């Protein structure tokens, strides 16, 4: 009869030298808050470059159009769009009148850009 004996072969993992600096919970909080403060300070400094001027801008020339029954925003914009770009004219009319949607009601007055040919 034969016997088999196995000896465990474990290689000892090299141990890393432990650093002498250890952060406590309060130390980690201080490092985190300091980093957060620095990031916010840099963000505020970069955002400070975007400022307006003291002079008023020029208002775009507009005229008033009254909506009649059956008029649509697409129809009004297509009458005004000399370059054929109806969608951009619709967007401009919506912006000028602060419209939430393209629905119009009869009798409504719209401010539209002045068309110059």
TrEMBL record:
SUPFAM superfamilies: LysM domain. CDD domains: LysM. Keywords: Membrane, Transmembrane, Transmembrane helix. The keyword Secreted does not apply. Residues 63-112 form the LysM domain. The chain crosses the membrane at residues 29-51. PROSITE patterns: LYSM. This is LysM peptidoglycan-binding domain-containing protein.
């Amino acid at each position: 009869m034969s016997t088999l004996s196995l000896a465990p072969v474990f290689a000892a993992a090299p141990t890393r030298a432990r650093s002498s600096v250890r952060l406590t919970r309060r130390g980690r909080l201080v490092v985190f808050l300091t980093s957060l403060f620095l990031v916010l300070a840099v963000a505020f400094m970069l955002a400070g470059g975007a400022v307006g001027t003291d002079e008023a801008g020029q208002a775009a020339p507009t005229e008033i159009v009254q909506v009649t029954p059956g008029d649509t925003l697409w129809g009004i914009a297509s009458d005004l769009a000399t370059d054929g770009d109806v969608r951009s004219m619709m967007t401009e009319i919506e912006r000028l009148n602060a419209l939430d949607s393209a629905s119009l009601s009869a009798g409504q007055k719209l401010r539209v850009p002045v068309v110059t040919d």
